[in-house]
Amino acid sequence: MARRSLLISVVAMVLALPAAAQSYPGSKPITIIVPFTAGGPTDKVARDFAEAFRKSLGNVSVVIDNAPGAGSTIGIAKAARSAPDGYTLLLTHIGMATAPSLYRRLPFDVQEDFAYLGIINDVPMTLIGRPTLEADSFPALIEWAKAQPEGVNLGNAGLGSASHLCGLMLQSATRLEMVTIPYSGTAPAISDLLGGQIDLLCDQTTNTTAHVAAGKVKTYAVTTPQRLHSAIYKDVPTLEELGLTDFNVTIWHGLYAPTGTPQEVLRTLNNALKQALRDPEFVRRQTDLGAVVATDARTSPAEHKAFVAAEIDKWGQVIRAAGQFAD
């Protein structure tokens, strides 16, 4: 009799598994960990995406959990340690590909500890200067920079930030060694740029567009291979057309789940991601910020992972050449 009861219990559990998978996510909230401060560029992307993602998952609640610190590695590690049940995800940017080269030791493995769900968008970057800077064009800026006896102050939002990476490539491409000034985020860096405390900043359009549109900064170039379609940037040249061959810095954002998340749940999440990327309001918001919503093969898990692997190689070379790393 006991054996029969045990058998019935096991069969009931097995039969219940497909139903449980099919019911995901049910009414339980999904948390998206963002390894940056609230109000920053990645947080803006995450909150816009969360709204579209919520709708594509049947109006389930999607909560943003900001876990900043240590160049995004604290939040990434938190996501890696989360239960692999589909209810805790990670949304982060290019730092997923640069962390392995920037840090000697990491509490996670970006290629082994995560299931890749898809790329969300690409964000161009702009090279901008303080409003009182004497140079009005990029060629004039280079000549001005060469003539500065105490060097040029180049700000960034901290080790591993998008602006840090862009600054590394800018110095390498121009063969100009600048005085790098790291900040604790984008907001204080832009504040000091507007106030004239630093000379230059290379940062995402999600941060710079409002200041560029208002004419509050000198705008020298964009970092994409082609000019941007936005009316605000249509007359801004690319660094490549200005002579910096193969200068392409685009900050992408992707969505991840902890390794071990059930395949049925991963398929549900990927389908919801693709649907969210077609949401007209999400596309409009991203376009207004100068970002381009992903529509290519990188929205699939396999292509997303292959793309990040290539980015790890690309940025590893840049970072090692610059000798930039942290403990």
UniProtKB/TrEMBL annotation:
* One Pfam family matching this protein: TctC
Key words of the record: Signal
> Span of the secretion signal?
1-21
Q: Which domain of life is it from?
A: Bacteria
Q: Which InterPro entries match?
A: BUG, Bug_dom1
The record ties this protein, via PANTHER family, to: BLR1237 PROTEIN, TRICARBOXYLATE-BINDING PROTEIN
Which family, according to the similarity comment? Answer: Belongs to the UPF0065 (bug) family.
Question: What protein is this chain from?
Answer: ABC transporter substrate-binding protein
Tell me what organism the protein belongs to: Lampropedia cohaerens
Lineage summary: Bacteria, Pseudomonadati, Pseudomonadota, Betaproteobacteria, Burkholderiales
